[in-house]
Amino acid sequence: MLTDSWGWRAAFGILVIDHDPVAEAEFWAMAPAGVSVNAARFASPRRPGTSEYGDQARVVAESPDIARGLDCFGGMRLDAICVCFTTSSFLGGAEFDKAFAAQASVRAQGIPALTAAQATVAAMGAVGMSSPYVLVPPWFKDEIIAAGQEYLAAAGFAPVAMDRLDVGGDLKPWELWDAGAQWEVRPEQVYHQVRRSIPAGADGVVIAGNGLRCVDTVAPLEADLGVPVVTSNQACLWHCLRTARVDTGAVRGYGRLFA
Question: How far, in Å, are 54, 84, 138, 169, 207 from residue 187 at the CA level?
Fold first, then answer.
């Protein structure tokens, strides 16, 4: 049946970093009938050609692009807004996340807002995960990985191990993003590294990073490993659906989280 994909059931807004093609694609792949996804983009807070983000919390919170996107979302009758930028959450920390989400909601005329990391933590709790194996994109530098470990541990989900996806080559992590690796990563690369690397003590898998194409690996990994799998975009959609009071069971084929 043909459909115009109108959000008559629920409509969500997502804020996505400038050169990320993945978040919208994965949201639309998972979204049940009657749910729409509206995206606004913002410039990366990273200084061009470097690995430096500066004062992450201030740069993101004061971004004119994000402010503009939230202003537009505020007039669109949306049910929830998600900031799909896990890097910001990890580097800013939980307190920044909480304050930023509250600030975003106010700016968007009261529409509930959350961040990718907040959604991921909530999803981990929902599937009963406590000691995850975490895989992050190849463009996450060491500082982001360390910050991510701290963020998850502070939330009560200390990673058993946290690895960067290995895509080979000699480029530095941030150079991979600038070179367009977000278009090149394939789900099978994610699948096979998780299968090879998951430690025996892990009771779940978290694939963090909204720009990492991976949602098609969720069901195969859960079937083969026997543990729940949570990804950033999967968790964001799940949390938005719950916020809008839409049955998450309407999503099929994307893991236990939607059961």
Answer: 32, 19, 13, 18, 11
User: Residue holding tokens 């981990």?
Assistant: 124
- Expressed in angstroms, the distance from the first to the final Cα of the chain is 25
Measured between alpha carbons, how far is 55 from 35 in angstroms, rounded to an integer? 36
Cβ–Cβ < 8 Å for 60, 92: yes
Mean pLDDT for all residues in the chain: 93
Say which residue, 258 or 54, is predicted with more confidence: 258
The answer to whether 125 and 154 are in contact (CB under 8 A) is no
Q: State the Cα–Cα distance between residues 131 and 124, nearest whole angstrom.
A: 10
Judged by DSSP in three states, 42 sits in strand
Rg, C-alpha atoms of the chain: 17
pLDDT digits (tens, 9 = 90+) for 195-250: 999 999 999 999 999 999 999 999 999 999 999 999 999 999 999 999 999 999 99
Let me know: does 110 contact 79? Beta carbons within 8 Å: no
The pLDDT score that the predictor gives to residue 48 is 65
Residue with tokens 């079937």: 223
Report pLDDT for 234: 98
Residues paired with residue 206 on neighbouring β-strands, in sequence order? 134, 230
Instruction: Determine the Cα–Cα distance for residues 148 and 207; give it in Å rounded to an integer.
Output: 12
CA dihedral 121, 126, 128, 130 (to 10 degrees): 10
Task: Determine the 3-state secondary structure of 236 from DSSP.
Answer: helix
- Identity at 51, one-letter amino acid code: S
